[in-house]
Amino acid sequence: MQDVILFTHQNTVVNNFVSWTLDNYAGQAALPITNDHFYELPKGQLLHAVAIIPTTDITLSIGSSPGAADIQPAIFVKANEPLLTTIGRYAAFAPVKIFFTGIDSDALVTFFKF
Length: 114
Hints:
Layout: E1 2-11, E2 16-24, E3 27-31, E4 38-41, E5 46-54, E6 58-63, E7 72-77, E8 83-90, E9 96-101, E10 107-113
Antiparallel strand pairs: 1-2, 1-10, 2-3, 4-9, 5-8, 5-10, 6-7, 6-9
């Protein structure tokens, strides 16, 4: 199973707003998101890996809480070049949140799940 999320980042003087679009094999649906940039893995699913293609150079880290880097330590990702990183998280008994730090421009994020 694969989900694709498109980050659209809009800077304003007042705040930053991030919207995600979720595409999956069953169709399309909007996925509301906070400025914490998290993806919630549904109960019973395994998130194997994530592919990220940013539109500008970024330094990305992935963690189990906002700002954490326990899943993927900070790594430089060049604009328009995909980064594939193993996540290896299983939401056995409850949904699990995966937080992304450093995405400050549009980015295509593909989730590879089982």
